[in-house]
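queue> pop job 88
queue> type: inverse folding (structure -> sequence)
queue> payload:
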């Protein structure tokens, strides 16, 4: 895929290009768009069209899923540095420090747009995820694009712009480490990184307010903060879903492709323990999507009916414990180091993220013993 923003012509109808047909096609176009403003605009358009029903299918079951790029297209106007060389942001005590904080927030939101569309394109079709999965992450992507747009606009109001400062290049690292596993992607990006954002946002808001920038403080407090709670909630929701999918005898459970992490040891009777997260063996049977010709309404409807069966269910305490233990295993494997308190318990709880999920991960294990 080319890294240039050719997507705009395809979607706007310029020339002979046709607009993307499925939500995954839109996601791939957005990931291939380099300009951050255009990326956010196209994401908003795609999410709006999808949620109002103007895009008929999440993906086309008649053709193999196209993989997303290993790294999304990014504008060369933003100078990227290794995290170790990125300048310190400061604590917002000066106008320059607050600009650096605001620029960093805009940078994070721009990458969050790519992360949201990547999860749609990378995992949605191969795992035959239900329509609600695409609904949730289209909304998340739309939110992240709006967050970037308002933060970028605020930078301009303050006499700066996105790209005026260098930014660190480490935001895609965890996406690369979890590119083979939706379970790991949800755990690390949406239940660790998004939740960490909830922990630090109140302090960030107070720094802008203390510096006399009430407009930015209110923007973060009234627009971005409450929506970030829903993004963390999406991660928790779909992590649970994957853990329950095979346990509930779902007909799509066998569609998990090789090398995708899954909760294969969840007890069917709601009891027992989980000791590890297993990987599907490479020599196992390969999952295939139902094949249908374009316009074959009966086959398309069959796919939609199968997707509709993938509903979240109420789960008992024993099964919830198993899900949480799986979460601990996945985070310890894919996230470097312990989680950093203090935690924003109230916001995390609003996202359905109880302390049992994350507090045990705030300690290091040394020679079999947990130490703070």
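queue> result:
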């Amino acid at each position: 895929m080319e890294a240039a923003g050719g997507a705009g012509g395809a979607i706007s109808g310029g020339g002979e290009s046709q607009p993307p047909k499925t939500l995954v096609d839109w996601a791939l176009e957005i990931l291939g768009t380099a300009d951050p403003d255009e990326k956010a605009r196209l994401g908003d358009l795609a999410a709006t069209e999808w949620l109002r029903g103007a895009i008929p299918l999440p993906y086309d079951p008649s053709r193999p899923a196209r993989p997303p790029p290993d790294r999304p297209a990014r504008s060369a106007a933003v100078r990227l540095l290794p995290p170790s060389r990125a300048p310190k942001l400061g604590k917002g005590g000066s106008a320059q420090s607050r600009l650096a904080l605001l620029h960093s927030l805009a940078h994070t939101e721009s990458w969050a747009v790519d992360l949201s569309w990547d999860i749609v394109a990378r995992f949605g079709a191969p795992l035959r995820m239900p329509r609600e999965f695409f609904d949730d992450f289209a909304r998340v992507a739309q939110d992240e694009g709006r967050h970037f747009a308002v933060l970028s606009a605020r930078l301009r109001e303050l006499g700066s712009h996105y790209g005026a400062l260098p930014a660190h290049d480490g935001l895609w690292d965890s996406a690369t480490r979890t590119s083979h596993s939706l379970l790991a992607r949800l755990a690390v990006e949406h239940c660790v990184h998004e939740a960490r954002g909830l922990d630090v946002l109140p302090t960030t808001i107070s720094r802008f307010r203390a510096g006399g920038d009430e407009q930015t403080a209110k923007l973060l407090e009234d627009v971005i903060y409450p929506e970030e709670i829903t993004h963390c909630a999406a991660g928790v929701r779909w992590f649970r879903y994957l853990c329950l999918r095979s346990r509930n005898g779902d007909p799509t459970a066998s569609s998990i492709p090789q090398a995708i992490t899954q909760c294969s040891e969840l007890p069917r009777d709601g009891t027992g323990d989980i000791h590890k997260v297993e990987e599907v063996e490479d020599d196992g049977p390969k999952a295939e999507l139902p094949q249908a010709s374009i316009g074959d309404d009966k086959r398309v409807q069959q796919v939609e009916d199968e997707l509709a069966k993938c509903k979240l269910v109420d789960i008992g305490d024993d099964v919830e414990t198993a899900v949480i233990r799986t979460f601990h295993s996945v985070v310890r494997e894919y996230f470097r180091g312990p989680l950093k308190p203090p935690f924003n318990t109230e916001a995390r709880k609003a996202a359905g993220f109880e302390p049992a999920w994350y507090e045990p991960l705030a300690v290091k294990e040394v020679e079999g013993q947990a130490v703070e």
